Amino acid sequence: MLSRIRYYVGLRSNGQTGIHDREVFKSHTEASTKTHSQYFTVIGPFRTKDAALMMSEPGAQFTDVSHAERVSKRKKRLDRKRLYK
Fold first, then answer.
1. How is the beta sheet containing 20-27 ordered, strand by strand?
2. Would the CA dihedral through 71, 73, 78, 82 be positive or negative?
3. Which of 8, 10, 30, 76 is 20 to 30 A away from residue 42, measured at CA?
4. Alpha carbons 42 and 44: distance in angstroms, whole number
5. CA 17 to each of CA 21, 26, 42, 62: distance values in angstroms, whole numbers, following the listed order
6. Which DSSP helix (H) or strand (E) runs through 61?
7. What is the pLDDT, as a whole number, of residue 13?
8. Residue 68, Cβ density class (10 Å: 0-12 exposed, 13-18 middle, ≥19 buried)
9. Could you read off the pLDDT of 17-72 as tens digits, one per residue?
10. pTM (predicted TM-score)
């Protein structure tokens, strides 16, 4: 039985500028820095790809994964309302 795909945000060090690159990836197993050694930090799991993408944006200021999920859900609902007005 395959486990459900979860989305994660991995932070990779950019040695020249000191800025951390954020990258969304998916995994069937629980991701960590041990299982995905190319990242120095792994954030997640996220239930939705939209929330992971929002967390990976530069300047994103979410307190935790559930905060990103709530904001993503709210944004999707508002976009739907605007579409049907």
1. 20-27, 6-13, 41-46
2. positive
3. 76
4. 7
5. 10, 26, 20, 24
6. none
7. 83
8. buried
9. 667 889 999 999 999 999 999 999 999 999 999 999 999 998 889 999 999 999 99
10. 0.82
